[in-house]
Amino acid sequence: MPTFPATAAPEQRAIRDARHERLFRWLLKGCALIVLAALLGAAGATLWGGREAFATFGWHFLVSSEWDPGNDVYGALVPVYGTLATSFIALLIAVPVSFGIAVYLSEVAPTWLRTPIASAIELLAGIPSIIYGMWGLFIFAPFFAEHIKPWLTNNLGNKPDDGKLSWVAEHVPFVGKLFGSDYPFGASILVAGIVLAIMIIPFISSVMREVFQTVPTRLKESAYALGSSTWEVSWDIVLPYTRSAVIGGIFLGLGRALGETMAVTFVLGNAMQLSASLLDPGTSIASTIANQFSEAAGLQKSSLMALAFLLFVVTFIVLLIARLMLRRLASKEGR
Amino acid sequence: MNTLYLRRRIANALAMALSLLATLVGLAFLAWILWETLRQGVGALDLKLFTKITAYGEDGGLLNSMVGSLVINFIGIGIATPIGVLAGTWLAEYANRTKLGESIRFLNDILLSAPSIVMGLFVYTIIVLPSTALTHGSTSFSGFAGGVALALIALPVIVRTTDEMLRLVPSTLREAALSLGVPQWKLTLQILIRAARSGIITGVLLALARISGETAPLLFTAFGNNYMAVNPLEKMSSLPQIIYQYANDPGDAMHALAWAGAFVITMFVLLLSLASRLILSRTKVSHD
Prior knowledge:
Chain A: It comes from Rhodanobacter spathiphylli B39. The complex is a heterodimer. In chain A, about 75% of the residues lie in helices and about 0% in strands. Chain A is mainly alpha-helical. The longest helix of chain A has about 40 residues, at about 10-50. Chain B is mainly alpha-helical. Chain B has a domain at about 65-240: MetI-like (MetI-like fold, Orthogonal Bundle). Chain B starts with a helix and ends with a helix. Chains A and B meet through helix 1, helix 4, helix 5, helix 6 and helix 9 of A and helix 1, helix 3, helix 4, helix 5 and helix 6 of B.
């Protein structure tokens, strides 16, 4: 850059400013790239840690239900099944309940009641997951074992206490197997799913409520003017308008449920077994890692890392879909 | 009466009743959880919680875990805040509407709900394993590693709030400063971040609330320690970790201690969320 003696001072200042500007820009960009590095690093570190397991077992790792530290043979099927089953149960319960809450808060409730209930639910979404886990372990699982489980096994399951099969267990396929269990405690796949559901209800319902509020009022008013009922407006106007974002919110909840460790570990019973019954204990990817990692070595540690890699990839894909779906509504609004 | 009309009326009444029921059921379960935490926690509150360390077991308290939690959270927030604020500033001021900026904003949203246990394993791989190799000794878990793991969880929260808050700052402020010849870095540091200060603080408080209950990433990083540790290079206990350990213990006295710890964490988190809400609502009023 040419310099002229007469204007040296301002010139130098401009150069200095430009230099600072460049440095500042690089600093900021570096910090932003750390976000990228964290995601790539987490995927890379678990893949690297699990390379031995992937190399030893290959594709067999994904489909084998054997997890035997004694013989050093590991397969991911049982924890993968536990993760998917608990998350699926959680969604099955949480989605309709969250939809009900969101409809109530955006269409039905008196206006003065909406904000307090919504903020109470949002506050509760911040409660640490280990609290949900403790409540599940000490309060809900015993309650379930005493009051709900006997009814389920006797009326729906194929292993009732008195040995007499109920009509449902005899005539409806699968139901008997799903609810048959002679395990005496509450901790089970079903209880873990219920606790997860309670944990993700605040997430899903606040996303749904937020997107329901983006529906233009004139759209709803036109429907009301044509004589629609509140339910018809919710189901035929609000839901179609926000469909992609609602699916996004559900996937966001699913992402949470899949990766959740503490709420599940306490109430899953930590049993490395594949059982058709929802009332039997099981394990999930995250709780297997939490329970075994500190004492594991060699191939077992590598297998746990490989499990973590699987979990990370699956949640990444689920969350990716969630964000893309949520973004679609935002672009509709021209944001 | 017209049957179609009647059917629609009934369907509507049914749906409204169900939505009310869903809200009541949801709130009831959440209230149940909160109530049990309060009841069991208050029942187990005792002065020894704050004066004795966990090495005494049933007769001990949680002092070293509370100190450990404070140290680890402090490290986590201390690392995540500068990085997060600068990264959020880059997204809002320098990379808004660029391809790289949009992708990082998008990936940050994913990192926001990535499984925390995987973050723990990541930090285990990049910090605990190398330092073990350095010391040639047993696995060197440390409070510092725990802090880094928590920083990774706090980071996306801070990035997102900073980004959002800066984008709310009116562009006339930027134009006014730039027209006076202020370089952009000075404008960013001295004007924009100041204008968005309360929003950014809210983000940091929310991030603190988020990490103070995290358990999974601490299990393989800070590990746990029955004695008092203040040096972040040592193994360190933390409240969530000790809750996890005591809740899995068969003894009832241990369960009471776990409930007391749970109560302390829940109160801390609820207070932080309330405080951040208050700050945010106050600034909204002052801007109007």
